[in-house]
Amino acid sequence: MTANRDELLELEREFWTGDQEFFAENADRECLVAFPEMACVMSNAELAATATKPHRWRNLEMQVEGIVEPGSDIVMLTYHAKAIRENGEPYSALVSTGYVHRLQGWKMMFHAHTPTEPQDGKAAK
């Protein structure tokens, strides 16, 4: 199966802005997450619980750096993201997400952020 780039990018956008229901429907049974402050395996329910506010990010910009499909049912996507947090703080990161194809469609099974320097010169947190 060949992944549809537009479909994957739309899923990514929704993971930035979506609610708990979206997360529950589109994350795999388990997801490995890696952020500067934490790295762990989260269940679908645990991950969905992190999406407590439906519009956590604004003005999301994504610049795709690469997509690889190492198997017929696995896709890895890497992109630079810039967004504004709910509190107005700018955020910039190199983001990687892995998807696995299940009967219900593509499901997020890996997600990592490496913060980068925002354009305004403030250090990313």
How is this structure best described in words?
The chain is an alpha+beta fold and 125 residues long. It has one domain: Roll (Nuclear Transport Factor 2, Chain: A), CATH 3.10.450.50. The protein is built from 3 helices and 6 strands; from the N terminus they run H-H-E-E-H-E-E-E-E. The protein has helices spanning 5-17, 20-26, 44-49, and strands at 27-35, 38-43, 57-71, 74-85, 90-102, 105-115. It has a 6-stranded mixed sheet. It is globular, with a radius of gyration of 14 Å. It starts with a helix and ends in a 10-residue tail after the last strand. The relative contact order is 0.21. This is DUF4440 domain-containing protein.
Q: How many structural domains does the protein architecture include?
A: 1
What is the fold named in CATH at topology level?
Nuclear Transport Factor 2, Chain: A
Mean pLDDT: 90
Sheet/helix structural class: alpha+beta
Strand content: over 45%
Please give the CATH class. Alpha Beta
What's the total number of strands?
A: 6
Protein name: DUF4440 domain-containing protein
Organism: Aminobacter aganoensis
